[in-house]
Amino acid sequence: MSRIHILMYHRIGDFPKRMPSHRAQYCDLPRFAAQMAMLKRFGYTVIGMDAAVAGLRGAQPLPSRAVVLTFDDAYVDFLECAAPVLKAHGYPATVYAVAGMLGRTNDWAVPEGLAPAPLMNAAQLREVRDLGFTVGSHTVSHPRLAQQETPRIAEEMSVSKRMLEDVLGERVDHFCYPYGSHDLRAVHAAADAGYVTATTCVRAVATPADDLLTLPRKPVSQGNTALGVLWKLLTKNTPRHPPIRRS
Ligand SMILES: [Zn+2]
Q: How many angstroms is it from 142 CA to the middle of ligand 1?
């Protein structure tokens, strides 16, 4: 059966040896480089989100070991650290930007104990796009969508799409739920806004049985070696809850 492993990264860079918390937010650059080399060595093919959609819809065949790489929040370190490694391998990737916070810092995360970090500005996002990567939306302000009133959910979805389309001068088809927080209202809002895909934090492999607006992902944490990531690709996760689907 067609399967795609969608990996979730946040920051890539040079961090203190063991971050005290939120370790899924950090990946040390040498480790990231080793993980990317491992994918090639073990026969994985990294595809972009549009190719993943075509594969999951059955419109084109998927490679037998397909991986999609995603980077949440659009940190400046994507451009500085991750992009050169990805380009060296010829790997596509999708970067999810918080449309109302371009050029600022991850203010939503600091009260939760994360290190402050700069987010890409509009010119940097265009540079990412010009390098061949895909830019998706991660809302306007990074709220937990399932905890918001329905009109706010719709606004976060549609306004962020429009803002990023203005920045890039092209369609923005892909969305990522902040914190993975989503419910049926959020999934319908993603559809109404016109997104083609939306990714969650449900730990599983994506298959054609998935709703494209609740695609599961596997997080990569600071503690994961290249072999640790390989193990994530080989193990079958059974999510605690059935995925939310539009009927
Ligand atoms: Zn985020």
A: 6
